[in-house]
Write a structure and sequence with these properties.
single chain, 697 residues, Ribosomal Protein S5, domain 2, 8-stranded antiparallel beta sheet, 6-stranded mixed beta sheet
Length: 697
């Protein structure tokens, strides 16, 4: 049965059509926000997937190019693999929703969002976020919803709820917050050094808006919601836990996990698992879930140690950061390099500088952004965690971590006018045991400074964890979580920033939300930690950006020309500019406003190219001294080339002080001579002279 529901959201109408399309999905809705249209669906398998110990949730965000009136590029004219924006949007949808499914649910679930039309005033990402939670809540799939998501921008110091694409791109804040009816469950932010108190204010403004969306969803559920289906629980049997504790008492498990060496801990757990496998050899049902049972036992042990005993597995204090180290220039010949180590987490970052012609081109739904000048990429090879696995290229996690570190540094990058380079930073994970994305932020910042990129401020990042008890006020926040505390804890709260304020946040949780005191404490704790990292570690490796780029980096000089003269520099079919490039070996980029970037490694050749461009774009004036090359000799005079496409003629009477009968008596092809411009002759032509060049010229 088709029903339509509407609400006013941030000054625009959100309409949800139920029962109009996709009747065979477990849940489906056609959402319109302004004129942005997104189809959200959710489906689940009838039975759990065999042989897995995780919840198989897949979230897709499909960007259809017809939604913005474009035909896809490439040969087959069909949408290909998901863009980075689509992957990051899928991750933002996944993170708040995953904890709200039952922990023992193993049925495959797929959430799909298809963008069908885009109104630039209503970003499709926020529609997909709302739609995903809505269709799952009204479906028969077990889900502890509803939840809702709001985005917040800031322009000229004023908050904007669900900003337009232009406000989102140009503003000082890009904040996404998901909430349940009681608590915040996800935060994602990029910011232009926003103070901590301002960020907290924005987070809870989003939380308040989310309550109005949740009320709207509840109304829809009352009318069209389906009863939740029964499912096969994959929980570990209580009697198995009891048997495990008989064989491995809690004190023995504590001893196994209480070490700061990841490899030793893994070996201890391997020995315990082998012991239990031998004991349960005759029980196939228990053997099938033994790995998950040991994992759960470790989790209970670590959480009890932290929450009740205030003991961390590596013996650190609750707010203590692991040992830190930082260095720059460890890789020779690259344009910039740095390594940052925090405990058993180690990142090496390498920066490459290039002309602006090498910016990344983007073919997406946002017509405001077609190129990307700063590119941060993150790699996570198997050897960084001691595993053997062939690399298949970056996955969603790698893309997400790279985007977070990229977002962290965007606020402090110089403008193109200040630093006319395309910049690529690549973070290579050498070792991983907790929050490599934050180590990547620190390493990237140092590497950029080592490369001579004039950053406006230093940026560092750190992650806080959380372990909660049975009540809202029974919790403990941990500074600088390692892998074990991330796996078994309830939160990974990553914050990057400068001394002045926050540049990025990414918060993942495994529980049904955070109270405001937890959010405030985590933000305060990360500020304290990142300032310590900047002042006591990073600044001692490199205190400020280098004044010059590396000797191996291309040098770029920018000049401004009259936009009307761009055609003269380019020449017919690019003949003139290609000739300049061929003669000097430089790269030349010209923008529509007349900005010319000359890029090369030899200063002499760059100066030569710039001089050619200046000559081409400057009108000849009386008294101007020029050097030209003889390119043609006629009976009446010689033609000189001053720059590709820029020529002039010296009459035979102006070649020598004495009378000559033939031009060839004085000049030959290829001669370089100085001339002075005499202005226009009687015919209106520009005239040049060799004999009238001043002696001092």
């Amino acid at each position: 049965m088709y029903k339509s529901f509407s609400m006013e959201l941030a000054g625009r109408t959100l309409t949800v059509d139920i029962g109009r399309v996709c009747a065979q999905a477990n849940g489906a809705a056609l959402l319109k926000y302004g004129e942005t249209t997104v189809l959200s669906t959710v489906t689940a398998s009838d039975k759990p997937r065999d042989g897995i110990d995780f919840f198989p949730l897949s979230v897709e965000y499909e960007e259809k190019m017809y939604s913005v009136g474009k035909i896809p590029g490439g040969f087959n004219k069909r949408e290909g693999k998901a863009s980075e924006n689509a992957i990051l949007t899928s991750r933002v949808i996944d993170r708040p929703m995953r904890p709200l499914f039952p922990k023992d649910y193993r049925n495959d679930v797929t959430i799909n969002n298809m963008v069908m039309s885009v109104d630039p005033a209503c970003r499709p990402e926020i529609v997909a976020m709302i739609g995903s939670a809505l269709v799952t809540t009204i479906s028969d799939i077990p889900f502890a919803g509803p939840c809702a998501t709001t985005q917040m921008g800031m322009v000229d110091g004023e908050f904007i709820v669900n900003p337009s694409q232009k406000e989102w791109d140009k503003g000082d804040l890009q904040l996404t917050v998901a909430s349940t009816a009681e608590k915040v469950i996800m935060i994602e932010a990029g910011a232009n050094e926003i103070p901590e108190d301002k960020m907290i204010e924005a987070i809870y403004k989003c939380h308040d808006v989310n309550q109005t969306i949740i009320a709207f969803v509840n109304k829809i559920v009352e009318e069209v919601g389906k009863p939740k289906h029964e499912y096969t629980s994959c929980a570990i049997p209580d009697e198995m836990f009891a048997a495990i504790k008989e064989l491995v008492p809690p004190a023995q498990m504590e001893e196994a996990v209480f070490t700061d060496e990841k490899q030793q801990r893994e070996e201890n757990i391997r020995e315990i698992t082998d012991k239990l496998a031998e004991a349960f050899a005759d029980n196939e049902e228990w053997l099938a879930v033994l790995g998950e049972a040991v994992y759960q036992y470790q989790k209970k042990t670590v959480r009890k140690m932290i929450l009740k005993d205030h003991k961390r597995p590596d013996g650190r204090a609750i707010n203590q950061i692991r040992p830190l180290a930082a260095e720059v220039d460890l890789i020779p010949r690259v344009h910039g390099s740095a390594m940052f180590t925090r405990g058993q987490t180690q990142i090496c970052d390498v920066v490459t500088l290039a002309p602006l012609s090498e910016v990344q081109k983007i073919d997406g739904l946002d017509e405001n952004i077609t190129t990307k000048r700063y590119i941060h990429q993150y790699n996570f090879p198997a050897y960084s965690v001691g595993e053997t696995k062939v690399s298949r290229g970056p996955g969603r996690r790698e893309i997400g971590h790279g985007a977070l570190a990229e977002k962290a540094l965007m606020a402090v990058l110089p403008s193109e006018e200040e630093f006319p380079y395309a910049i690529r930073a690549v973070s290579e994970t050498f070792e991983s045991n907790g929050s490599t994305s934050m180590a990547s932020t620190c390493a990237s910042c140092m590497s950029l400074m080592a490369a001579g990129v004039p950053l406006k401020a230093m940026v560092a990042g750190i992650s806080c964890g959380l372990v909660t008890g049975d009540t809202d006020d029974d919790y403990i926040v941990l500074t600088d979580i390692q892998g074990l505390e991330d796996f078994f804890g309830d939160m990974d709260f990553k914050v990057t920033g400068t001394h002045k304020g926050i540049t990025a946040i990414q918060m993942d949780i495994k529980i049904h939300g955070l109270t405001r005191p937890i959010v405030e404490e985590a933000i305060a704790r990360t500020r304290e930690a990142r300032i310590y990292i900047m002042d006591e570690v990073m600044s001692k490796a490199i205190a400020e950006p280098r004044k010059q780029v590396s000797e191996y980096a291309p040098k770029i000089v920018q000049i401004q020309i009259d936009p009307e003269k761009i055609g003269d520099v380019v020449g017919q079919r690019g003949k003139t500019i290609n000739e300049i490039i061929a003669r000097t070996g430089v790269k030349i980029d010209i923008t529509d406003d007349g900005s010319v970037s000359v890029c090369g490694t030899e200063a002499e050749m760059m100066d030569k190219a710039i001089e050619m461009i200046r000559i081409i774009t400057t009108d000849f004036k009386e008294g101007q001294i020029l050097t030209g090359t003889v390119v043609s000799i006629k009976e009446f005079g010689a033609f000189l080339e001053f720059a590709p496409g820029k020529e002039g003629m010296v009459h035979i009477s102006k070649i020598a002080k004495e009378r000559i009968n033939h031009v060839e008596d004085v000049l030959t092809l290829g001669d370089k001579v100085k001339v002075v411009c005499l202005g226009k002759d009687k015919m209106g032509r520009i005239s040049f002279s060799i004999k009238d060049v001043p002696a001092e010229a």
